[in-house]
Write a structure and sequence with these properties.
Residues 73-142 form the AbiEi antitoxin C-terminal domain. InterPro entries: AbiEi_C (IPR018547), DUF559 (IPR007569), Restrct_endonuc-II-like (IPR011335). Residues 196-292 form the DUF559 domain. This is Type IV toxin-antitoxin system AbiEi family antitoxin domain-containing protein. By secondary structure, this protein is α+β, with helices and mostly antiparallel strands. The protein has three domains: 6-55, no CATH class; 62-192, no CATH class; 196-295, Endonuclease, Chain A, CATH 3.40.960.10. The chain contains 13 helices and twelve strands. The chain is elongated, with a radius of gyration of 26 Å.
Length: 296
Amino acid sequence: MGGFTTEERLARHLAANDGIITRGEAMSLGVTSSSIARRKAAKIWQPLGGGVFLSTAHPLTEAARLRAATVIAGGVADGLSAAWWHGVVDELPDIVTVTVPPARRCRVRSAIRFGVQRRSLLDADLTTVRGIAVTAAPLTVAEASAAAAAGSRIMDRALQEGTVTIQTLERALERNAGRHGIARARRLVAVAGTDTESEAERRFALLLRRHRITGWVQQYPFGHTPIDFAFPSDRLAVEIDGWAFHRTADRAAADARKQNRLMLAGWRLLRFGWHALDQAPEDAVDQVVAALGAAA
């Protein structure tokens, strides 16, 4: 036990685990069943269900909620819940989701709201991050991207930050072919692996044609780098960006210089990326129409 007293061992465990402790963990640290009962009665430990407790000296944080849910359910955090733990989304869902083995019963009364899906996962799709069992990053990113309305942004962020690669995503998709949502994730991976800027430009051109917006020229000459879409008579420039994953520091600097030159030459500028054109194309059209109307 390293020479620490029971209380010292408890304090260290609770600090490292967001205030969450199980009955088994407490007893392994030297706490007796009667002591657990006294702590519960004195409201020092709040029962969360399934022999899991929260020390009332600790707040029920998002991390504590996720940690407790995985332990109570006896599974691994998945989807957007796992994506939050991996750091590729900024908010934990209101209802944590957990994958459990197909035969596991999960009828425990719990103070934590969580959803369960029963399935078998390969070892390659499982990991432990900061003491919590979660789906591995590639499967997590694939499933979270498929589930969220802004899924391409999640995948782009994970690729940009190096949490996953196109190759690790493709291997996760191969291992989990046929699962719910994998088809959408596969489409996103296919887009990410291509020239997303060209794909975004193609989508924008289709939008303009569909809405019968005229007066534009694609790749309009402007110094050394043409304008992606220009409305010359209105001096309106529209620059199209792909996924951040594909952008380099040199490219970002060049874009900034081009933007400055456009502004100094009296052009107005709008920028749209692949995600905006994919998820809110009508908003992009409205902005173009408003800009053209303002110039009239």
